[in-house]
Amino acid sequence: MSAEDALAKLERQVLAAASVGDFLKRVATLRVLLGREDESVRRIVLAWVAPRLEAQALAAVLDAFSLGANDALDILETMDEYGRIKRVGRPSKDAKDIVRGIDRDGRKALEQAQKLARAGAALDAVTAPLIGHANRVSSRITEAINRAGNEGATAIADAAGLPTVWVAEYNACVRCLAYSGRIAKPGKDFPGGLTYGRPKYATQGPLPHPPLHPYCRCTVEPLRSKEYATTLRREADRSVLRGFSLQSESMRVRIDATERLLKRSPDAPKSVIEYARKAVKRGRFVTRGA
């Protein structure tokens, strides 16, 4: 991934934080007061006006779609036969529906916090509805931003009559890694049910693009060459064999995925194969988070 691609991806990821910055800062202030066991937190909660975030969130979804489309256009401009393609389409109803209702949910959380404050509840109980809402907002907007960005990239690829290729992070989960390097024909979906792990935990239905699950970091790009897709597939195998992963995925899942992959005789250096076999034998990887 080029520096420009990495920057554009980062911009999509931080749009959500920027669009709800004021709200998250207020929740952070409450956390500080809570840590000090300051009784003034009740007065702040009682006087607090629920911020209006939904319009900002919808604007962020539109921006993400444009960023995804522009990323794809930048890739196509390196392929002389395609020339300049105008941006097409807009975010889907699904992407926008994810962030609708944020203001309503925020008012409910605030009303609940105010009710608890008036009743003299403990400080952690008073702030819990607001902190919970902040976490849900972050998750929902992150998902909507990722979905819209990938919709934009897919729209440009479809307009050019090009396939899209799925790109996963090197330490993605065993489901996302199974999609990395997979190709979808123009206007078609990626197949369902792919995973390095146990099939019963796989997503069953076809997918037009990421996200595959909440907090998914995967992206799609117009396919530049089959060799690129092959490289992504090979690197996904090696990520599994090396045990690169986040703490959010259990070691048992990674070891099970590695054991399954080893049975398929993957195309990987002997040293990597041997390392994976030793990890399976001892039941853990020492490279988690590397």
Descriptive keywords:
single chain; 290 residues; mainly alpha; 2 domains; three-stranded antiparallel β-sheet; 11 helices; flat
TL;DR?
The protein is mainly alpha-helical and 290 residues long.
What does this structure look like?
There is one protein chain. The chain folds into two domains: 1-162, no CATH class; 163-290, no CATH class. It is mainly α and 290 residues long. The chain contains eleven helices and three strands. The radius of gyration is 22 Å and the shape is flat. It has helices at residues 3-19, 21-36, 40-47, 54-77, 93-99, 102-118, 123-160, 174-179, 226-242, 251-262, 270-282, and strands at residues 164-167, 183-184, 219-222. Helix 6 (102-118) runs antiparallel to helix 7 (123-160). Strands 2-1-3 form a three-stranded antiparallel sheet.
Q: How many structural domains does the protein architecture include? A: 2
Strand order of the largest sheet: 2-1-3
Please provide the count of β strands. 3
What share of residues are in beta strands?
A: under 5%
SSE sequence, one letter per element: HHHHHHHEHEEHHH
Q: Provide mean pLDDT, rounded.
A: 85
Alpha-beta classification: mainly alpha
Give the low-pLDDT segments. none
Radius of gyration based on Cα positions: 22 Å
- Compute the number of helices: 11
Distance between the termini: 19 Å
The dominant shape is: flat
Helix content: 55-70%
Main β-sheet description:
3 strands, antiparallel
